[in-house]
Amino acid sequence: MIPAMLDLFAYDFMQRSLLAAAIVGALCSLMGVFVVLRGLAFVGAGTSHAAFAGVALGYLVGWPPLLLAIVFGIATVWITGWLEERGRMKLDVSIGILYTTTMALAIVFIGLMKTYNPEVYGYLFGSVLSVTGEEVLLIGGLAVLELGLLALFWKELLFIAFDQEMAEASGVPARGIFFLLLTLIALTVVVALKTVGAILVFAMILIPASTAYQLTHSLTTLTLYSVIIGTTTAVTGVIVSTVWDIPSGPSIVLLATAVFFLSLLISPKRLKQPLGSRHP
Amino acid sequence: MTSPQDSKENASRPAIIRFDHAWFGFPGVVALEDISLSIHAGEFIGVIGPNGSGKTTLCRAVLGLLSPLKGQLHIFDCACEELRCHHRAQIGYLPQKGVVDRDFPVTVLETVMMGRYGALGLFRRPGPEDRRIALESLALVAMERYRDVALGSLSGGQQQRVFIARALAQQPKVLLLDEPTTGLDLPMQHNVLDLIQHLHKTLRLTVLLITHDINMIRSRVDRLVLLKTRLYAQGPPADVLKPDILEQVYGRGLIFSDRDLVFVEDYHHSH
Predict the structure, then answer these.
(1) How many CA atoms lie within 13 A of B230 on its CB side?
(2) Does the ipTM exceed 0.90?
């Protein structure tokens, strides 16, 4: 079995898939740290469906699908953020409405297509094994852009995740940084769309960071663990899916979920602290 | 509490925060009306009032997070609408307990370092000087030995000290504290207020302390500001804490005086 696996790595498609999975796994798990800490889980889930509507429209009108995915994703998170900021609507309510609306749009766009298009369904369910060289370049380019922005605004992103109002009161341009965070979430969703699909993409953002959260009280360690778990489960998931001939997206997500439940069992946070164990 | 001589000196200084017939609120709701109040450098002011009296709205206004609907608010000689990030960094803020997720995965030192972020501005990373200031701030609140400890593992009183250190790391001119003793046991309440009083004296900080607990602060502050949507009274505690004035705000029959203590039956006081 192992020689057969090693043979697989010689194929171009396999190398591309593993590279795409590693990039997506690392990036999603890094963004996941802010999503988990800022409590934006549902925003990401909604964004992935909005981005899929963009993909469907792209295939319908013959425009670049990922470009429209970016437009739809960013528009959705900005509208959501704006509504919350104005106090008009809670974040989960507005994203719930946009989530279902954009999914309805996606179904309409697919219905308007004259013929069955398997590539659209690739973005819905994920097909990392069919990722092309150009797509790897695009994913890599977007990932570099995001990593650059994360590095530039790391301390501000951390502060607004901790407490946005306190950050603003301390002189950090918190509103702008919050919208930057929403934009980065939308871009991450688009980067990962082809790999695991719109339905499962958010698991790649949410699960590694949630797993790491169980294991440490330190932000640096949490970030490191999250990236290691995200990258490892993404790459391993692709290998498992190829060897056992199962879809790659679900393979990655199920593997990450198994690691999450394992983390719950060994989490030091779950172990009951005896009374008085806190610092006096 | 500063001496009468110091109080006179403080009052003669120019106001660093000035409300001039300012109204605050939200569409259809007026939270504060016609507030005229000057806060001078070096003063220790207590803001009191029942629940829903607009104390936190006043706090948000001082932080520059709310603009007046009518009237004017000047902070550091700057109209609050024109307040820039570096002005905000001069106000160290301790939010109410419960606003912040205190199980957030950060160490004590990482929390205090956040106090440097506003002053640093965008694109600049904290350096050794910022770390030195953060460690000094921790020393001021006697928490330096906990610098590498997870914030969530500390007791409530210790967490308050860390948040005060975070505010001090901004090297602020004003310390704004919103209900700093809520949720703490009695000895810890005195402990935190003693610390605030000590910082006010040693660092010559202007302190604006919002609280429901009149008796805890009456002997510590220079001035009390009594709010219930509008400003009912301001002045030395002895001038404000009079039955006829308090009755206007807390209602008749809810005030009991015993050995100079004031008991008010509102939500916070009934525990």
Answers:
(1) 6
(2) no
